[in-house]
Amino acid sequence: MSTPRIPELVVSDLTVKFAGITALDAVGFTVAPGTIHAVIGPNGAGKSTCFNVLSGVYRATSGSVRFGEHELTKLPPHKIAHLGMARTFQNIALSKLMSVENNIMIGRHRLTRSGFLTAGLRLPLNRREERDHRARVREIAAFVGVSEYLAAPTGMLPYGVLKRIELARALAMEPILLMLDEPVAGMNGGERRRMAEVIKAVQEDLGISILLVEHDMGMVMQLADQVTVLDFGKRIASGPPAEVQQNPEVIRAYLGVSDENATGVSMDKERA
Ligand SMILES: Nc1ncnc2c1ncn2[C@@H]1O[C@H](COP(=O)(O)OP(=O)(O)OP(=O)(O)O)[C@@H](O)[C@H]1O
């Protein structure tokens, strides 16, 4: 597969205020093309807010998010998706009644000429177009390891499989930047390992950029090229995972203890 041209994602001075709360305070980081960049931090640090601004769901109070030549902070979610940014959600957002194949097909919608969801007239061109899209859906299903479930109603499937179907639907948009919101939350060990393998394969085989919000530090250490750490809306550290994990301020943020008493840190802890 040829690697598409991937722009940098540059977040600068991003501030988001809700009534009385500064959820993000002048945060900046850059996702380099083809890398996995993790945003981590204790509960309430501002990770979801950041994700929601980047995907156009929340408006920034100030600051900028540039994806190549495009400024994203004024764009609605569908325009951001059209630039090749796809996201998954913390909670499963699939239709339980639809088959797995049709759930993944929804990701193709922005790429269809006829808009198959609304097309009433089934002309030969539409049928051919649909056949091509379904072939690509099957390839993507194989890539994330859900081929055997394609015809199954989605509601019956185990949680780990559902999370991979969500990833497949995001990949079906042929993104150049994939945003994953806690992709292994609530999974058991086996499911986590499987998801980590798929995420690594996305980076290696598709060459696209990945922005990851994640609590599981094992996962972040294993996958991320760069990590940005948020605490109470501020960026407190950034760098390669091994470096960030030893940063005294990061240890303090996660454990609430002085760095003399802390050696390394398990960052899946919630703020007390
Ligand atoms: N829509 C909103 N309205 C008001 N306050 C909000 C809203 N969304 C988030 N906040 C507040 O902004 C702060 C950051 O929340 P956010 O959900 O971004 O943190 P988080 O790091 O994603 O936390 P978690 O790990 O628990 O998901 C919190 O104080 C939260 O209560």
Automatic annotation (TrEMBL):
Cellular component GO terms held in the UniProt record: plasma membrane
SUPFAM superfamilies: P-loop containing nucleoside triphosphate hydrolases (SSF52540)
This protein's record includes keyword Transport: yes
Sample GO molecular function, one term: ATP binding
InterPro entries xref list: ABC_AA/LPS_Transport (IPR051120), ABC_transporter-like_ATP-bd (IPR003439), BCA_ABC_TP_C (IPR032823), P-loop_NTPase (IPR027417)
Residue span, ABC transporter domain: 9-257
Record keywords, A-Z: ATP-binding, Nucleotide-binding, Transport
Name of this chain's protein: ABC transporter ATP-binding protein
Protein's organism: Actinomadura craniellae
